[in-house]
Amino acid sequence: MSNKDIITLLHGAGGSYMHSLIKNVFMKLNDNYGEVGLEMLDDAAVINDTVISTDSFIVRPIFFKGGDIGRLSVSGTVNDIAMMGGNPIALSLAIVMEEGFPLSDLEKIVDSIKKTAEEADVHIVTGDTKVMEKGSLDKIIINTSGIGNRPPQLDYNINTLRKNRQPSRWLVPTNLRPGDKIIVSGTIGDHEISILSSREGIGFEANVKSDVAPLNKLMLKLLEVGGIADAKDPTRGGLADLLNDWSEKSGLGIYIKEEDIPVREEVRAAVEFLGMDILELSNEGKVVLAVSPEYEKDVLEELHSDPLGKYATTIGEVRKDISGVIMETVIGGQRYVGRPIGSPVPRIC
């Protein structure tokens, strides 16, 4: 049996392999149900003004610099709802553990879940617990599903956009228009480098903490400013996968400048040491925004007033005279940024 006939780690790594799997297999389930449904291939769906999302977390190690699997499981689903423009309200929590899993570790994870849910102002309302035989699972898997409603800030944000366009009522890629500015809320690559430096046997040490955090309160403040066409967190596949997704779904090109992309020096050094592409690294506490140019300054001011957006910067713009994603390099050349095959590191979220 060839690799074409089996599932590999690349099929869950957030790049072209995963997108092909979803389109060729899971899209058979699509029946065009909902205002934003499965056909949008986004991280959340909208049904009767209710936003829903689900995510499973298999990160290794389960405790890492800056966070743990519990904080990740709450933040990940909260952020998927927030990126659609929704206000997350409640989560379900399903945990599958390996026989022999330390009770003390479970208590630490549950405590982290509780603290992160309080930080995000969401409620854990239902759940499920399963235990599998020792050796049939690597420690623990967590699934969180969430629901959210339509906040009044989103209606204000949409009204500001209607000065120049007729957008969707939600934050989706088809809202993008030529001239929109691409803003990233802070330094990229922190989460993936943190995970790598926390793993045994990797061979390098980096003083980098994961950026994992719930972004829903920040998003509500940004929606009040207005002018946001779309928002998405650059998780698996990183900035490269996100921008290619926007370009494909909007039918427009995206031009970015390498020198404007915020990267911590420790992360840059680790990337060079490991031979990785910073644009493909996973993040769990950042948002990328497509913003109408007349709102760029105000959005950046709001971001800079929040600790989660302290290092926000504009990295490029949407254009109709190019195809795909093009990056102007620091030496003045141009580089085509393709969709990655998949994250270079398995089990990062």
Keywords:
single chain; 349 residues; alpha+beta; Phosphoribosyl-aminoimidazole Synthetase, Chain A, domain 2; 7-stranded mixed sheet; 5-stranded mixed sheet; 9 helices; 14 strands; globular
Report how far apart the termini are: 29 Å
Which percent range fits the helix content?
Answer: 25-40%
Q: In the CATH hierarchy, what is the class?
A: Alpha Beta
H/E element sequence: HEEEEHEHEEHEHHEHEHEHEEE
Strand content: 15-25%
Pick out the low-confidence regions. Answer: none
Structural class: alpha+beta
Total individual domains: 1
Q: Radius of gyration over alpha carbons?
A: 19 Å
Number of contiguous helices? 9
- State the strand order across the main sheet: 9-11-8-12-10-13-14
* Main β-sheet description: 7 strands, mixed
Second-tier CATH architecture? Alpha-Beta Complex
Instruction: Let me know the CATH homologous superfamily.
Output: PurM-like C-terminal domain
Molecular shape? globular
Please provide the count of β strands.
14
CATH topology group: Phosphoribosyl-aminoimidazole Synthetase, Chain A, domain 2
Q: Could you report the average pLDDT, rounded to the nearest whole number?
A: 92
